[in-house]
Design a protein that fits this description.
- The protein is mostly helical.
- Strands 1-8-9 form a three-stranded antiparallel beta sheet, with no helix packed on it.
- Strand 2 and strand 3 form a beta hairpin.
- Helix 15 crosses helix 17, helix 17 crosses helix 19 and helix 22 crosses helix 24.
- The longest helix is centred in the middle third of the chain and has 25 residues.
- It is globular and about 85 Å long.
- The N and C termini lie far apart (about 55 Å).
- The C terminus is likely disordered.
């Protein structure tokens, strides 16, 4: 820590830096801190600034990007998006932080120091320390002892520890991918490393290290280990493109128009929009005049047929009302149709397996699950179970959560979330774990996104509104319709999501009349699907402020939910999670699995909707939030297939006595009695309690 703040950053002659681009002053996250501190702008790389949607997408047609070269690449405000392209326009890749293979702890520490020196947090801390040291009450004779004291006084040490923890976790996750994408391993003998023959070694205290600015990963949609899945990803992107264009022609609505006009062809409805301060204003929304009549019943989507998955509702208007470009069953059908000819059948028996997922992906065993989810062991008291019968434990859990949340250290808070968070403390802890600061910058950024919604019209806007109306028909969420709509409006315009998502789809890009590619479409990179707003709705039970609601949902989507809606073979994405479900159910209860097949029902046909929506719209709200506590705490989506299998096993007895499909659907549509903690514990640790050991 002392060394980090008392040494100067490397000069340009010894360490190359990313190129610096001008930042528009419209960005609410941009603060001209360079001028206040007289720090040369060359020492503040572009990657250190908190990226606004403008900075990350300089080609976006809905922003004015300042700079000498911007005029030649940006459309004017009168231009609109007329077509879509699957080819990515040239953009400089974002530089992630990653450890090359086989680095020692000392080398990792040096890499971490270099990365911290290029971060906004580092310069903020250094400025604070400098401002304190120049005060007369301090003696400069003992700077090393003063720095930790200053950090403690201003509560900055926790921020630094959290940033180090975040970077370390990010580097560990990327370590495998970087080795497979052109990065060589460190030569243990010489201590040097190379990157595709063009690495730059920086010597620090005698150790040769890989320059972090050279760690450029491959293009996201090329970073797929299985060729057969990569091809399906591209085909899926083409399908989405054709589907969007087809809807555009059907509705006679362009993909994008810079300004909403009151004399638009279709009638405009005055929709309520919540601003950052919580006030309600009326804003023009390109929306259908009648609300959707369909009533969402808890659990009903689990048994829907594919043909009514995302079908438009045209009961009250001449034109159909789409709730999304696609539905979960269409994505699931695409995943099921992925076949690798090398593994279709076994060489000896030529028999096709029971499961719908044919890819040979390695699932987790029960022992693996016990190691991952050790905090769920019945020996540990759980919020959501023990607090219901023991008042002293409930009070103790609340006091413990209060005390630890005041410290703000992310690893400790994650440990709390693994055993459940008391409802009174959930909002505060989730905000810290999901990066919600409640600062004026976040409020300004949120208002900017709403302004972009009000100042531009996109084809997807109707889908967003219709999907929210459908979600608000749920008895649990109808009172929060305005909040959900406001969050979804901001979400649809937030270009940061396209850059920061932990798993990205093959992107679509808007094309103008001249055929020039402009920006990611939609701006957030998330093509609307049926039920997207269901993921927002539970957050309204935790946060009363729409700004906090939005940034908590955005943090959750970027880290976890985005993986459920992407075709990929990478861990904790939809296909591996479905494979995990089939593997566990076949091994734990093969008789149940076979009985359902005899009734022409694949268990995964039911469970995939639970997994796709992370059980939103199915579980009771209190149980859903307890589940999401564990997802955030363990940072692991494998809890979704584990809970899905647990529900099947819990319902095994009545299912085995059933002989009709409709009765099966009725059994799995009732979630009113489901309590997740006993089910998870019984499956992972105490299978014999429910009689699983005989199967």
């Amino acid at each position: 820590l002392i060394h980090l703040f008392t040494t100067s950053p490397p000069t340009h002659s010894s360490l190359s830096r990313p190129s610096i681009h001008p930042i528009s002053l419209q960005s609410p996250f941009h603060t001209p801190f360079q001028q206040k501190r007289n720090i040369p702008i060359a020492h503040i790389p572009r990657s250190s600034c908190i990226r606004s949607s403008q900075e990350m997408h300089p080609h976006s047609p809905i922003h004015n990007f300042s700079g000498s070269n911007s005029s030649s690449t940006l459309p004017s405000q009168s231009q609109s998006t007329h077509n879509l392209s699957n080819e990515e326009p040239f953009m400089k890749p974002k530089r992630p932080f990653a450890y090359p293979a086989n680095l020692s702890d000392t080398e990792k520490t040096h890499l971490m120091k270099q990365e911290l020196r290029s971060s906004l947090l580092y310069w903020s801390l250094k400025r604070t320390i400098k401002g304190e040291l120049i005060k007369s009450k301090y003696s400069l004779n003992d700077i090393k002892s003063l720095i930790p004291k200053i950090l403690d006084q201003h509560n900055l040490k926790v921020k630094l520890k959290n940033e180090i923890y975040r970077l370390h976790q990010e580097a560990l996750k990327r370590q495998y991918d970087t080795v497979g994408s052109g990065m060589s391993e460190v030569d243990s003998a010489s201590g040097s490393s190379t990157l595709s023959g063009e690495a730059f070694a920086y010597s620090h205290n005698g150790s040769s290290l890989l320059d972090p600015s050279q760690l450029v990963p491959p293009t996201p949609h090329l970073d797929e280990p299985l060729d057969v899945v990569d091809q399906v990803r591209k085909n899926w992107s083409l399908f989405l493109k054709d589907q969007i264009m087809s809807i555009s022609h059907q509705l006679k609505v362009p993909l994008y128009v810079p300004q909403k006009k009151e004399n638009s062809r279709r009638p405009l409805q005055r929709a309520s929009v919540l601003t950052a301060d919580g006030s309600v204003v009326q804003a023009s929304s390109h929306a259908a005049t009648a609300s959707t009549k369909r009533k969402i019943k808890k659990g009903s989507k689990g048994v829907k047929k594919a043909d009514d998955d995302s079908a438009p509702d045209d009961t009250d208007d001449d034109l159909p009302k789409y709730t999304g470009v696609y539905g979960p069953s269409k994505l699931f059908e695409t995943c099921v149709n992925i076949h690798n000819s090398n593994h279709e059948r076994t060489f000896s028996t030529n028999i096709v397996g029971w499961g719908l997922i044919k890819l040979e992906l390695e699932p987790l065993s029960i022992k693996d699950l016990q190691q991952r989810f050790s905090d769920l062991d019945p020996m540990n008291r759980q919020v959501g179970l023990d607090d219901q019968s023991k008042e002293w434990f409930s009070n103790d859990a609340i006091n413990t959560a209060k005390r630890l949340s005041s410290g703000g250290y992310i690893p400790v808070l994650s440990k709390v979330a693994r055993r459940g968070i008391p409802s009174t403390q959930r909002g505060k802890i989730w905000k810290q774990l999901l990066g919600v600061t409640g600062s004026s910058k976040q409020k300004a950024y949120f208002d900017m996104l709403l302004h972009q919604w009000n100042s531009s019209l996109m084809l997807i806007d109707d889908m967003v509104i219709n999907d929210v109306k459908r979600t608000s028909d749920d008895e649990n969420y109808f009172v929060f319709e305005d909040v959900i709509l406001t969050v979804m409006q901001a979400f649809s315009r937030d270009a940061y999501i396209a850059e920061a998502a932990s798993l990205k789809p093959v992107p679509l890009f808007g094309v103008d009349k001249l055929g020039k590619k402009r920006s990611c479409y939609p701006p957030n990179g998330v093509v609307p699907f049926e039920g997207l707003s269901l993921l927002v709705a539970p957050f309204t039970y935790i946060f009363s402020n729409p700004v906090d609601t939005y940034f908590a949902f955005r943090g959750m989507y970027i880290k976890y939910f985005c993986r459920l809606h992407v075709i990929s073979s990478k861990p904790q994405s939809l296909i591996p999670l479905c494979k995990q479900f089939e593997y566990m159910l076949q091994n734990m209860h093969p008789h149940l699995y076979y009985h359902l097949l005899e009734l022409n029902i694949h268990p995964l046909d039911i469970a995939v909707n639970w997994i796709f929506h992370a059980f939103a719209g199915y579980l009771q709200v209190d149980q859903l939030l307890l589940l999401w506590d564990r997802v955030i705490g363990f940072s692991d989506l494998n809890l979704l297939p584990v809970l899905s299998v647990s529900i099947f096993l819990f319902r095994a007895k009545p299912v085995m006595q059933t002989t009709s499909q409709q009765e099966i659907f009725d059994i799995f549509s009732d979630f009113s009695t489901i309590e997740i903690i006993p089910l998870l514990q019984a499956f992972v640790f105490k299978q014999e309690l429910m009689g699983f050991s005989s199967y």
